[in-house]
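So, is this right?
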Amino acid sequence: MPSKSPRDSRQAARLLEPGPVVLVTAQFRSQPNVMTAAWVIPLSLDPPRVGVAIHPSRFTHELVTRGELFVLNVPTLELIDAVHRCGIVSGREVDKFLQAGLHPVDALAVDVPVIEQCAAHIECGLVERLTLGDHDLFVGEVLAVSADDELFTDRWQISDDSPLIHHVALDRYAGLSRPYTARPEREGGEED
Protein backbone atom coordinates (compact mmCIF):
# COMPACT_ATOMS: atom_id res chain seq x y z
CA MET A 1 0.00 0.00 0.00
CA PRO A 2 1.33 3.49 -0.83
CA SER A 3 2.57 5.70 1.97
CA LYS A 4 0.11 8.35 3.16
CA SER A 5 0.87 11.40 5.24
CA PRO A 6 -1.26 13.91 7.16
CA ARG A 7 -2.14 17.08 5.26
CA ASP A 8 -3.27 20.57 6.17
CA SER A 9 -7.07 20.64 6.60
CA ARG A 10 -7.28 23.25 3.83
CA GLN A 11 -6.27 20.48 1.42
CA ALA A 12 -9.70 18.82 1.86
CA ALA A 13 -11.10 20.92 -1.00
CA ARG A 14 -8.24 19.84 -3.28
CA LEU A 15 -8.90 16.18 -2.45
CA LEU A 16 -12.50 16.57 -3.61
CA GLU A 17 -11.38 18.19 -6.85
CA PRO A 18 -11.08 17.90 -9.76
CA GLY A 19 -14.62 19.12 -9.99
CA PRO A 20 -16.46 20.59 -12.91
CA VAL A 21 -15.36 24.08 -13.79
CA VAL A 22 -18.15 26.53 -14.54
CA LEU A 23 -18.32 30.11 -15.64
CA VAL A 24 -20.76 31.89 -13.32
CA THR A 25 -22.62 34.75 -14.94
CA ALA A 26 -24.46 37.32 -12.87
CA GLN A 27 -25.94 40.74 -13.44
CA PHE A 28 -27.36 43.61 -11.46
CA ARG A 29 -29.17 46.31 -13.39
CA SER A 30 -27.21 46.51 -16.64
CA GLN A 31 -23.85 45.37 -15.19
CA PRO A 32 -23.06 41.75 -16.17
CA ASN A 33 -20.00 39.76 -15.10
CA VAL A 34 -18.50 36.32 -15.52
CA MET A 35 -16.34 34.44 -13.02
CA THR A 36 -14.62 31.04 -13.01
CA ALA A 37 -15.70 28.68 -10.22
CA ALA A 38 -14.91 25.07 -9.38
CA TRP A 39 -16.70 24.83 -6.03
CA VAL A 40 -20.09 23.83 -7.39
CA ILE A 41 -22.45 21.22 -5.95
CA PRO A 42 -25.86 19.69 -6.63
CA LEU A 43 -27.96 20.11 -3.49
CA SER A 44 -31.47 18.78 -4.20
CA LEU A 45 -33.42 16.99 -6.92
CA ASP A 46 -36.88 18.07 -5.72
CA PRO A 47 -36.93 21.02 -5.87
CA PRO A 48 -33.89 21.14 -8.16
CA ARG A 49 -31.20 23.18 -6.39
CA VAL A 50 -27.50 23.73 -6.87
CA GLY A 51 -24.86 25.64 -4.96
CA VAL A 52 -21.78 27.64 -5.81
CA ALA A 53 -19.21 28.94 -3.31
CA ILE A 54 -18.01 32.50 -3.93
CA HIS A 55 -15.62 34.60 -1.86
CA PRO A 56 -17.20 37.85 -0.56
CA SER A 57 -14.45 39.98 -2.15
CA ARG A 58 -15.47 38.89 -5.66
CA PHE A 59 -17.52 41.20 -7.86
CA THR A 60 -19.77 38.26 -8.79
CA HIS A 61 -20.62 37.83 -5.09
CA GLU A 62 -21.96 41.38 -5.06
CA LEU A 63 -23.93 40.90 -8.30
CA VAL A 64 -25.55 37.62 -7.21
CA THR A 65 -26.42 39.11 -3.82
CA ARG A 66 -28.05 42.18 -5.39
CA GLY A 67 -29.56 40.63 -8.53
CA GLU A 68 -30.61 37.33 -6.88
CA LEU A 69 -30.00 35.40 -10.11
CA PHE A 70 -27.03 33.51 -11.56
CA VAL A 71 -26.17 31.06 -14.32
CA LEU A 72 -23.72 28.17 -14.17
CA ASN A 73 -22.26 27.87 -17.68
CA VAL A 74 -20.33 24.65 -18.41
CA PRO A 75 -17.34 25.36 -20.68
CA THR A 76 -15.33 22.93 -22.78
CA LEU A 77 -11.57 22.56 -23.16
CA GLU A 78 -11.72 24.86 -26.20
CA LEU A 79 -12.37 27.67 -23.71
CA ILE A 80 -9.52 26.85 -21.30
CA ASP A 81 -7.74 30.19 -21.82
CA ALA A 82 -10.98 32.14 -21.33
CA VAL A 83 -11.80 30.08 -18.23
CA HIS A 84 -8.43 30.86 -16.70
CA ARG A 85 -8.61 34.55 -17.69
CA CYS A 86 -12.03 34.90 -15.99
CA GLY A 87 -10.53 33.51 -12.79
CA ILE A 88 -7.61 35.91 -12.53
CA VAL A 89 -8.98 39.34 -13.50
CA SER A 90 -11.69 41.38 -11.80
CA GLY A 91 -14.93 42.38 -13.51
CA ARG A 92 -14.78 45.60 -11.49
CA GLU A 93 -11.79 46.63 -13.62
CA VAL A 94 -12.40 45.09 -17.06
CA ASP A 95 -15.14 43.65 -19.23
CA LYS A 96 -14.26 39.98 -18.84
CA PHE A 97 -16.63 38.90 -21.63
CA LEU A 98 -14.72 41.10 -24.07
CA GLN A 99 -11.27 40.32 -22.68
CA ALA A 100 -11.88 36.54 -22.71
CA GLY A 101 -13.67 36.51 -26.07
CA LEU A 102 -16.93 35.18 -24.61
CA HIS A 103 -20.30 35.94 -26.21
CA PRO A 104 -23.12 36.73 -23.75
CA VAL A 105 -26.59 35.88 -25.10
CA ASP A 106 -30.09 35.89 -23.62
CA ALA A 107 -30.96 33.13 -21.18
CA LEU A 108 -34.17 31.10 -21.35
CA ALA A 109 -35.67 32.13 -17.99
CA VAL A 110 -33.53 34.70 -16.19
CA ASP A 111 -32.32 38.23 -16.85
CA VAL A 112 -28.67 37.19 -16.76
CA PRO A 113 -26.67 36.35 -19.89
CA VAL A 114 -25.54 32.84 -20.71
CA ILE A 115 -22.27 32.23 -22.55
CA GLU A 116 -22.99 31.13 -26.09
CA GLN A 117 -19.80 29.01 -26.47
CA CYS A 118 -20.50 26.90 -23.35
CA ALA A 119 -21.83 23.34 -23.63
CA ALA A 120 -24.55 23.76 -21.00
CA HIS A 121 -26.31 26.32 -18.84
CA ILE A 122 -28.08 26.05 -15.48
CA GLU A 123 -30.15 29.17 -14.81
CA CYS A 124 -30.88 29.82 -11.15
CA GLY A 125 -32.88 32.06 -8.84
CA LEU A 126 -31.19 32.72 -5.51
CA VAL A 127 -32.89 30.89 -2.65
CA GLU A 128 -30.37 31.37 0.13
CA ARG A 129 -26.87 32.56 0.90
CA LEU A 130 -24.98 30.79 3.67
CA THR A 131 -21.76 32.04 5.20
CA LEU A 132 -19.79 28.91 5.98
CA GLY A 133 -16.27 30.24 6.44
CA ASP A 134 -14.26 32.41 4.07
CA HIS A 135 -16.68 31.69 1.17
CA ASP A 136 -20.45 32.06 0.93
CA LEU A 137 -22.55 29.27 -0.53
CA PHE A 138 -25.18 30.62 -2.91
CA VAL A 139 -28.08 28.18 -3.17
CA GLY A 140 -29.98 28.48 -6.41
CA GLU A 141 -33.27 26.97 -7.47
CA VAL A 142 -32.88 25.72 -11.02
CA LEU A 143 -35.27 27.64 -13.29
CA ALA A 144 -34.04 26.42 -16.71
CA VAL A 145 -31.43 24.05 -18.13
CA SER A 146 -30.03 23.75 -21.64
CA ALA A 147 -27.25 21.53 -22.99
CA ASP A 148 -25.45 20.53 -26.18
CA ASP A 149 -27.32 17.53 -27.65
CA GLU A 150 -24.11 15.74 -28.69
CA LEU A 151 -22.33 16.13 -25.35
CA PHE A 152 -25.27 15.59 -23.00
CA THR A 153 -28.26 13.25 -23.28
CA ASP A 154 -29.44 12.21 -19.83
CA ARG A 155 -25.76 12.39 -18.70
CA TRP A 156 -22.45 13.69 -20.00
CA GLN A 157 -21.12 11.61 -22.87
CA ILE A 158 -17.59 10.91 -21.67
CA SER A 159 -15.10 9.60 -24.21
CA ASP A 160 -11.33 9.46 -24.61
CA ASP A 161 -11.40 13.08 -25.71
CA SER A 162 -14.09 14.42 -23.39
CA PRO A 163 -14.10 18.22 -23.62
CA LEU A 164 -15.20 19.00 -20.02
CA ILE A 165 -12.78 20.93 -17.80
CA HIS A 166 -11.89 19.99 -14.24
CA HIS A 167 -9.85 22.16 -11.89
CA VAL A 168 -6.83 20.67 -10.15
CA ALA A 169 -5.16 23.70 -8.52
CA LEU A 170 -4.27 27.30 -9.35
CA ASP A 171 -3.56 27.32 -13.12
CA ARG A 172 -3.79 23.52 -13.48
CA TYR A 173 -6.77 21.93 -15.23
CA ALA A 174 -7.56 18.48 -16.57
CA GLY A 175 -9.96 16.79 -18.93
CA LEU A 176 -11.63 13.47 -18.26
CA SER A 177 -10.59 10.42 -20.21
CA ARG A 178 -12.00 6.93 -20.63
CA PRO A 179 -15.39 6.31 -19.13
CA TYR A 180 -15.88 3.37 -16.78
CA THR A 181 -19.08 1.55 -15.92
CA ALA A 182 -19.38 -0.26 -12.61
CA ARG A 183 -20.78 -3.76 -12.70
CA PRO A 184 -23.49 -4.15 -10.08
CA GLU A 185 -23.05 -7.10 -7.75
CA ARG A 186 -26.76 -7.69 -7.59
CA GLU A 187 -29.90 -6.56 -9.34
CA GLY A 188 -32.07 -3.80 -7.85
CA GLY A 189 -29.37 -2.02 -5.88
CA GLU A 190 -30.34 1.02 -3.86
CA GLU A 191 -29.23 4.56 -4.58
CA ASP A 192 -27.35 6.54 -1.96
